[in-house]
Amino acid sequence: MDFELSSEQLSVRDLCRDFARNEIAPKAAGFDETGEFPYAIVAGMGKLGLFAMRFSESLGGAGGDFLSYCLAIEEIARADASCAITLAAAVSLGIAPFVEFGTAAQQERWLPALLSGEKLWAFGLTEPEAGSDAGGTQSRASRTGAEWVINGRKAFITNAGTNISAGVTMTAVTGGSEGHKQISCFAVERGTPGYTQGPKYRKLGWHASDTRELLFDDVRVPADNLVGEEGGGLRQFLRILEGGRVGMAALSVGVAQACLDASIEYSTQRRQFGQAIAGFQATQFKLADMATQIEMARLLTHKAAWLFDHGGKPGVYASMAKLHASEVATACAGQAVQIHGGYGFMEDLPVARYYRDVKINEIGEGTSEVQRILIARHLIKRFEGA
Ligand SMILES: Cc1cc2nc3c(=O)[nH]c(=O)nc-3n(C[C@H](O)[C@H](O)[C@H](O)COP(=O)(O)OP(=O)(O)OC[C@H]3O[C@@H](n4cnc5c(N)ncnc54)[C@H](O)[C@@H]3O)c2cc1C
Q: Annotated catalytic sites, by residue?
């Protein structure tokens, strides 16, 4: 067993750390306050090759490994969760469906602009009445000649409404019966008649990440826009979410690390009762617990990424990493605010933003409850099979 990162992985981490420190961190509070989408940062991440890094060179990617991608997400999230989710959603949810299930024609058509970060593509699974129960999809697509006609609504879709958003891969029911719906995936370009977006949601956190409702009213797409096999949509999306969850785990580790960084800095400077508050054992224990939990979350995330790089199936480890890292991040954000006292409640310091930004990590890409269901199902299946 080797816990050392390779020299390539270390250079990705250091490159992203420098970019995040110099280009993102100084602007993060401003993005949070105004909700302005970080176009220049996205362009910068594109120049660094972050959208392309984990995909094969034969498709125009950089041929990097999944672990390097996780290191990049962690470093970006350490500076700003909104920028990190913009990247993670674009890569894990926007690009990956074309890479894993797209036809050569679809890959040629859409991947170049997505891999460079010039355009963003969204992932439309969730609906107003179908969240955790993604199989409850109500959007429908019917075949008429050489086209599919799509009707429905998608809720909470990341990267759907920016000036560089190019479209969405969405699920829709294409047949079957209630309880046994046949679900398929379609690529729908923005600008297709009948495809409209709602206003930006007002959110607790991730203010600079673009999240919208999408509406489909008799939207006609060519038959060639079917992504993957007809009826295989749900299986495909669940597979895509595995990668997404490992990315979300890395994002959580990054925010948790930012909470620890800020807490160490503040507690060694803030003085009460004639000494730095880091001198009190109560503070030291908080720091020690945070550091230990973060390291556990990082190791679990790296193991899931390693499994991706050695066979492509992190399986239950994707759920474990996402569950553990997101809950650790929420706990660390709470402790960071506590260590900062009243100043932690003020928006002048970044920990208030971390506290607001982090909660969604326990909800998006499958809630903590859903991850526990998946992990338990895996355990019971193994028991039954023993
Ligand atoms: C900012 C943001 C960005 C998002 N981006 C995207 C995106 O890009 N694409 C996309 O498709 N979706 C996206 N989502 C949707 C996200 O994945 C869903 O919000 C999430 O899956 C939960 O679905 P829900 O909100 O409908 O909650 P619900 O499914 O209604 O869950 C509500 C509560 O009930 C619990 N619950 C539900 N079922 C069970 C059960 N069987 N057992 C125990 N507890 C249960 C849940 O764990 C949760 O606590 C985004 C959401 C947000 C907020």
A: 365
